[in-house]
Amino acid sequence: MKATISDVKNHVGSEVTIGVWLANKRSSGKIQFLELRDGTGYIQGVILKNEVSEETWLNAKELTQESSLYITGTVREDRRAPSGFELTVTSLKTIQIAHDYPITPKEHGVEFLMDHRHLWLRSSRQHAILKIRDEIIKATYDFFYDHGFTKVDPPILTGSSAEGTTDLFHTKYFERDAYLSQSGQLYMEAAAMALGKVYSFGPAFRAEKSKTRRHLIEFWMIEPEMAFCTHEESLEIQERYVTYLVQRILQKCQAELQTIGRDTTKLEKIKAPFPRISYDQAIDFLKQEGFTDIEWGDDFGSPHETAIAEHFDVPVFVTEYPAKVKAFYMKPDPDREEVVLCADLLAPEGYGEIIGGSQRIDDLELMKKRYEQYHLNDPSYKWYLELRQYGSVPHSGFGLGLERAVAWICGLDHIRETIPFPRLLNRIYP
Ligand code: 4AD
Ligand code: MG
Fold it and tell me: Where is the Aminoacyl-transfer RNA synthetases class-II family profile domain positioned along the sequence (predicted)?
């Protein structure tokens, strides 16, 4: 019977055939141990010389790392095996012998691994990270579905920019100019006025000349937007969502967390509500910590975010930033118009910003003023202004960077391992 490694538990004592790759092999005299993988898991195949045909024995001897084959054997329970099961091989059919697979069990440099990303994905570590990424995506869909949100897909090719014009990817749209989306937010605001609570999950492109452990050129973002929702109510949704993601991974991905060596005690502490500090308090704190050059009105860089977040074991909201370091659409604090009703959520352990969000300007006259200040009086932004003209309501939203969340939850040193094929400042291969 055809099976996968993940469902051998249903076939104990029976003979199954599984399509596999050889991850590793050991042999001693009359016995060969094949470490096999099929994408759903790992299992050890045991071949006893005296119990198989000579042809099977010799075919097994020829197998090299990453050779592909169909393996047939009897499933046995084995408490000592990592998967809990073992395969007593009866026969095998080689599909292809892989010659000189470049990624061997020895250590390789990062650039070498990145050049071989298409193969590196097969390693148990990368497999585990991609499984966790998938579970975060699934948990996102579940969370927003359960909270009454509708998923809406904003366009990727746009004529307007949400997050400023400095890092836009330009392309031609027939005779006209267009940009790859930096954020779906402006469109999600329109969608929230139609559907109330909405969210998107899609790619975002930023031509950022930053070469850091946190920046990708192409990344995936989850962007909820809520009508009749204040900044404070949005923060509550954010902390519940992030708590839910972490709890789901702890619940469903213990094996994967173990494979990548994640210290799960750190994740177990993640529970809403999260602490909040204002931008003003953060500036004072940074000055005390020895950041003498930072002044009120400066934006925070990675070292600042890390210093702030290091003081907490759970994510922390930094709220009410100066309007001038944030986007044009953020609503000013009614009591203090130089700051806006916004927050960045900084993850602990040095991971920095995972969410950026705010309440949006809903007043037509103020938005017109912002259009003047930010030079947005261009036909491509006309529709966004109209949202403030016909039944404008208080509304808020936020964006969570999927890869930043994966990096933090998995405890990875660099964002490059969080996405199958990372686009980095100097890399678009493979
Ligand atoms: O803070 P950002 O730029 O906010 C927005 O785009 C808003 N329009 C979101 C909204 O309110 N709907 O980006 C949101 C998040 C960041 O907190 C970060 O997690 C992630 O997107 N992000 C990146 N992730 C990887 N590489 C980059 N270059 C990123 N830039 C932002
Ligand atoms: Mg931000």
Answer: 130-430
Q: How many angstroms is it from 67 CA to the middle of ligand 1?
A: 41
Q: Is the same domain home to 64 and 160? A: no
Residues 210 and 352 in one domain: yes
Ligand nearest to the CA of 329: 1
Binding pocket residue ranges, ligand 1, CB within 6 Å: 162-163, 183, 185, 206, 208, 215-216, 219, 221, 223, 353-357, 397-399, 401, 403-404
User: Residue 270 sits in which domain range?
Assistant: 117-418
In angstroms, what CA-CA distances link 393 with 116, 323, 389, 399? 50, 21, 10, 20
Mean pLDDT of the region 394-421: 98
Same domain, 80 and 132: no
Whether residues 152 and 13 fall in one domain: no
Q: How far apart are CA 197 and CA 301, in angstroms?
A: 32
CATH number at residue 307: 3.30.930.10
The answer to whether 430 touches 421, Cβ cutoff 8 Å, is yes
User: What's the pLDDT score for residue 210?
Assistant: 83
Arithmetic mean of pLDDT over the chain:
96
* Of residues 242, 201, 205, the one with CA closest to residue 223: 201
Rounded to whole angstroms, how far apart are CA atoms 83 and 61?
24
Report residue 36 as tokens.
């096999």
Tell me, what's the ipTM?
0.99
Taking 90 as the threshold, does the pLDDT of residue 83 lie above it? no
Is the pTM higher than 0.95? The answer reads: yes
Are 363 and 279 in the same domain? yes
Span from the CA of 356 to the centroid of ligand 1 (angstroms): 6
**Residue nearest atom 6 in ligand 1 by C-alpha distance:** 183
Give residue 399 CA to ligand 1 midpoint distance, Å: 6
Asked if residue 317 and residue 242 are part of one domain, the reply reads: yes
Q: How many independent structural domains does the chain possess?
A: 2
